Structures are given as structure tokens and as C-alpha cells.
Amino acid sequence: MILSRLSLSNFRNYKSLELSLSAGINLISGNNAQGKTNLLEAIYYLGTLKSFRVRSETELVNWGQPAAGVQAGFIRADGTASQLEVRWAQGSAGKWERRVKRNGIVLRSLAEFLKEVPLSLFIPQDLALVQGGPEARRRYLNVLLCKSSPDYLRALMRYQQVLRQRNEWWKRRSLSRRWDELKVWDEQLAWLSAQLVRERERAAVQLNSIVNEVFAALSETTAALQMRYRTDLTASAEANLDKICAKREDEIARQQTLLGPHRDDLIMTMDGRSLKQCASQGQHRSAALAMRLAEALYIGRAISNPAIILLDDCFSELDQGRCSRLFDYLSGLGQIIITSANRFDYKGNTPIAEYFVSNGVILTDAQVWRS
Question: What is the reported pTM?
Fold first, then answer.
């Protein structure tokens, strides 16, 4: 997938922007608070209908403006073109409304939208993939699989609904509970868990191979980075139901669902030791970056359409050698869009399209930056 053209109107600090991008590596440089990350946020929103920075979409609209929009043209691997557009407008009652279009037609379904733009985003906070708790790694797996498998997305949405209803059942007063209802939730939980676990285990095996390869390329180390999916359930609905029933007394005591994919984890090790405990800060950053690049490769291979890779401030805490190896590795991965507060003095042979951002204005003449 190639993002060929991006148009912004009153999005963050961009009053108006028309930008054409290279099909290879694009380096967007500039001082802090000038709009570099805002640009990646706009692209990311077109792939997810979410911001990776704020919860309220009104914060995406330039202050004091009644409307805003993001529009982009894409070219798929098979040569077909498409156009996506998101517009926000404030109605007469002051309420903000959002409209999403593909090729001029309004889209209603999130599932329909998620398959449109395969992409992967690395941000500095992604160190939580390595240093944080299981929630970040579960979300990593869920997003990756939802982008590459509509069946997984449907199963996950149904699982979350069943889990919510089952937990609400536990919160009821004892006299209002019907134990036959719990049996229904148990069976659905076991069946949906089997689907999710099966897909996650398969993905983890493939990701393990990709992550190890990327980590070795970035760090030039002989240490092996390994990823393993850990779950208390199985890919068998019958076995899962037995495990769930065996937890009944504990669940009665704690009044909540204690088994399920919502409690699973991806275990990261380096040469058999906990990555979180034994690796340096630089290795943690390389590992998190390797996970994001592996995500892009996995999605691209699954749908036969290379993912767009967004890297925000990825050079921070990487030494000169790692930065050079990163550029060399990225050269064969498709379209890359990188932001950096400083221009990196890359001496390799990979062509790089350079842009400079200043207060919501992008200069495409690289000579301006070099001067």
C-alpha cells in the first residue's frame, strides 16, 4: 500500500496542506511542536479511526474552526487506487459529527474500514511493549490480527461482549442470579476463547521468526530475541469449558471472570532470559521497534498488500550504528514515513525523500534543511 497524496484542512496545526509522498522512505524533520507527529496522527487515523494521542476527536480540530478534514489517496499492491476521507463538522447545537467516506461513499461499518489501510505505527511510548504489563502486548496482538483477519475481528468483538455480560452477571445480587444463564455464558466463552487462542498461537509462531530476524538486523547481535504466547486456555472449546468450570469456586469468591484471552500475554526473552530484566535500554528500544516492524510485515503478508510503516522519533536513544542499520533494513520494506527532530546524517545508498516542518507548513526542498 502506498499513500500517494495527503490533504489536511484545519487538522491540528495544519490549516491547509497538500502533500505528495515518496513510495520509499520519507524523512520528516523539524523542531519540536511544529507538526511532525500531527502528520503521522492524521495518517494513522485514516487506518484506524482512532488517535494514538487523545480520546476526544474535537482535539484534532484546529482551535476555533467549525470543521476539519483528512483526505488521502492510496495505491494498493495490485495497482488499484482508492480515496479515503474523514470530516468533522460542528452542528447548530454545537455537537460534533464525523463522516467517513471511501471513494465518495459513506462508510458505516468499522470492520469495513479497518481493512482499508494496512499500517503499523511506532511511537516512543511503545517501550511499554517490552517494559510494561501484558495489556499493551495483548492490544498489539489484537490490532495486528484484526487488521489481517476479519474473522478474528468478529470473534474478538463477540468475545468482549460475552465477557462483559458474564462479568455483569457476577455483579448481580445472589438472589437475582440464574445459574442456567451462567452455563450459556460459559459455553460461549469457551468456544470464542478457542478461536482467539488458535489465531494468537499461530500468529505468535510467525511473529517470533520475524521479530528475531528484524532484531538481529537492527542490533547486529548474536543474542536471539524470542516471543512466546502464554495462555491458560487451549484451542479446544471442550477443554476450555472444563477449565472454566474448574474455576467456579474462585470465581464465586472474586465475583469475576478469571479465565480467558483477556488475561493472556506475549512473553519476550533474549537467549532464554527475561528481556525486561536482562536487556539494556537500547536493546529494549530495538526490541519494541522490531515488534512494530514485524507487525507491518505480518499484516502485509497476510493480506498481500505491504503495510505503510510510521515511525515517530525512532532515532531517540539509538546510536549511530543502529540508526544506519535501521535505514538499511527499511529500504526493502515499502513506504516508510519517519519523523525526527534532527536530520540524520545517513551515508548509505538508500534514497530518502526529505521534508522540513515549521509551524504547520511543510517544505519539500531538501536544500532548505541542509542550508
Answer: 0.89
